[in-house]
């Protein structure tokens, strides 16, 4: 069965600095990988996904994620953080079945 | 176009009462999911509907939980004899299909509080 881990409950970064939110996964076949973001008091929004092809995936709001097959990771990145990026971020993995979500990482960007 | 809608946005109920939560998916989306989000617990999969196929109920935590989807569109999640541990945000999502590259579109959720 597939699984996903987000090793950090919280990530703190200063505005303007680069940010990374970590995600590792385990699947039996080729993975489909997703990142979602949840702003306060709102539902989850899709950010980006990796299906196949280029290991660097670009998504909404300037976010990108790098798929690393050997390390089974799919870390979310942004070159320059904004205070408005402060939110709860979920990584999700899917193989041929359903989607499994990580427990989420709270990103806090300070001004 | 309209996104996924859920009602009510908030529900406070007494322990032992039954509650019904409603989800209206995006038109044309054949897949519909229910999740439960508790503080510090991430998203817990509850149930999944795909077209006219039998639902995947593997995530329902007890037989007090049930869901139906009428006409391949609107879905209702019912919790019978609510318990305090049922307090959580219940999220509904829809997608063009299950598996493959389809991302999910989430509703704003229903916050359930059992007193």
Concise summary:
With 111 residues, chain A is mainly β. Helices cover 0% and strands 53% of the residues of chain A. In chain A, the strands form three sheets. In chain A, strands 2, 5, 6, 10, 11 and 12 form a six-stranded mixed beta sheet that branches.
Overview of the molecule:
The complex is a heterodimer of chains A (111) and B (115). Chain A is mainly beta and 111 residues long. Chain A has one domain: Immunoglobulins (Immunoglobulin-like). In chain A, 0% of the residues lie in helices and 53% in strands. Chain A has strands at residues 3-5, 10-14, 19-21, 24-26, 32-38, 44-50, 56-58, 64-68, 73-78, 87-94, 99-101, 105-110. In chain A, strands 2, 5, 6, 10, 11 and 12 form a 6-stranded mixed beta sheet that branches. In chain A, strands 3-9-8-7 form a 4-stranded antiparallel beta sheet, with no helix packed on it. A two-stranded antiparallel sheet of chain A has the order 1-4. Chain A is globular and about 40 Å long. The model of chain A has no long low-confidence stretch (mean pLDDT 92). Chain B is mostly beta strands. Chain B has a single domain (5-96), classed as Immunoglobulins (Immunoglobulin-like). Chain B is built from no helices and 10 strands. In chain B, strands 2, 4, 5, 8, 9 and 10 form a 6-stranded mixed beta sheet that branches. The mean pLDDT of chain B is 91. The interface between A and B is medium-sized, with 21 and 22 residues.
């Amino acid at each position: 069965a597939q699984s996903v881990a987000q090793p950090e409950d919280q990530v703190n970064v200063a505005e303007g600095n680069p940010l990374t939110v970590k995600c590792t996964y385990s699947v039996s076949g080729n993975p489909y990988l997703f990142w979602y973001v949840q702003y306060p008091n709102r539902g989850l929004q899709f950010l980006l996904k990796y299906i196949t092809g280029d290991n660097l995936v670009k998504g909404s709001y300037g976010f990108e994620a790098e798929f690393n097959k050997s390390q089974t990771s799919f870390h979310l990145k942004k070159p320059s953080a904004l205070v408005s990026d402060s939110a709860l971020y979920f990584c999700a993995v899917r193989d041929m079945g359903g989607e499994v979500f990580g427990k989420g990482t709270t990103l806090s960007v300070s001004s | 176009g309209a996104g996924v809608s859920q009602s009510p946005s908030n529900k406070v109920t007494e322990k032992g009462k039954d509650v019904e939560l409603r989800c209206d998916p995006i038109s044309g989306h054949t897949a519909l999911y229910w999740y439960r989000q508790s503080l510090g617990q991430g998203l817990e999969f509850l149930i999944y509907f795909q077209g006219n196929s039998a639902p995947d109920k593997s995530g329902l935590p007890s037989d007090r939980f049930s869901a139906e989807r009428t006409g391949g569109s609107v879905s209702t999640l019912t919790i019978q004899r609510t318990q305090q541990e049922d307090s959580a945000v219940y999220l509904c999502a829809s997608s063009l299909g299950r598996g493959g590259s389809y991302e999910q579109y989430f509703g704003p959720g229903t916050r359930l509080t059992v007193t």
